[in-house]
């Protein structure tokens, strides 16, 4: 029986015949041409021919606000591509469904539904949400992640101290800044040794477990060796700039039995791939479904209310893609990020729930009482939000001056 991977597109045009366009895509991206084929050849080629599943045309709505989607003429087009046409890997799927087509006018890839056969070749996250929670022994609250800041040009003792201060704040994970590449001052194995020693020291004070996601960088051919080097030095998680390398590079790392630690996917470069509305790839596919299929245990993406923002419906769609039930495919942790401070925690919890990660760099290091207090302020904000208590009221109690100071600086967003 023929199996298919199905792509959903949104094509924009003031006057095009969208049915004709859909047929052009289905034929053009598979067998090339159809009507010109001799009948005998058609029989052989039929199993390779793309199928138009549906074409939903949207005409501009009278009175719609100029510039709004409702004011545009577009069609949502579904095309099914026979699995037999491409090898079972994400690059082949992307080139088939949105290779040349991505450059051909105003068209956006909204979604990809992969066949069961294709899905089987993508084992997904090794740990997933539950696995990461198990490693940390935390199940009843969102996790708190802290981001190294001021790392380029710094020496190991400085990074070690910065790590220690972050860990003292009671964070669950610490991740490298994505711009910290392999470098002579803080090579990955030395950095990991220093930071994990700081983690052990801090744990004596906090009693907490902690994951350190070290940034795996360099040439693609060296990624596995870099990851192994970090793990051998004690790294218990990894960070990876997925989109600069491609999903297959993530999948290679995630599938490797020797890389037995969670992988956090950074969204750097993704903005170039999801321009607004008319072009590119929908964020819930790029940062949601594909990240999960390729094996990310945690996925960072812009939040609706921080410094680098994305519309709320898109961030919720990413989180839904990462967490919805998908048979044996484990869910990945949504990590809405950028410009996050304690005053945003109630909103984060309301929108992304307990099975998410609160992630902050400047919102921790920029705390007026220092980095450790920055982490503590977040933990207090999380406690307050879980109890349904207003942050201002919670912060007014003795022993919560860290949250009080954070609110004085950043405020509380309602
Ligand atoms: C846009 S998601 C990436 C967030 C990130 O990596 C980061 O460094 C955010 O730092 P911030 O100081 O804004 O919390």
What does this protein look like?
InterPro entries: Diketo-Methiopentyl-P_enolase, RuBisCO, RuBisCO_lsu_C, RuBisCO_lsu_C_sf, RuBisCO_lsu_N_sf. One of its GO terms (molecular function) is 2,3-diketo-5-methylthiopentyl-1-phosphate enolase activity. It holds the Pfam family RuBisCO_large. By secondary structure, this protein is α/β, with parallel strands linked by helices. Helices cover 40% and strands 17% of the residues. It has 17 helices and twelve strands. The protein has an eight-stranded parallel beta sheet, sandwiched between helices. A four-stranded antiparallel beta sheet has the order 2-3-1-4. The protein is globular, with a radius of gyration of 24 Å. The mean pLDDT is 96. Ligand L4RZE5RM is lined by residues 147, 177-178, 267, 300-302, 307-308, 337-340, 360-363. Ligand L4RZE5RM binds next to β10 and α14.
Keywords:
alpha/beta, Alpha-Beta Plaits, 2 domains, four-stranded antiparallel sheet, 17 helices, 40% helix, globular
What are the SSEs and their pairings?
Blueprint: E1 4-12, H1 18-28, H2 39-45, E2 51-58, E3 74-82, H3 90-98, E4 107-113, H4 116-120, H5 128-136, E5 143-147, H6 156-168, E6 173-175, H7 188-206, E7 211-215, H8 223-232, E8 237-241, H9 242-245, H10 247-255, E9 263-266, H11 283-294, E10 298-302, H12 312-323, E11 333-337, H13 345-352, E12 357-360, H14 362-365, H15 371-387, H16 391-395, H17 401-410
Parallel strand pairs: 5-6, 5-12, 6-7, 7-8, 8-9, 9-10, 10-11
Antiparallel strand pairs: 1-3, 1-4, 2-3
Helix pairs in contact: 6-7, 6-15, 10-11, 11-12, 15-17
The structure holds the ligand CSCCC(=O)C(=O)COP(=O)(O)O.
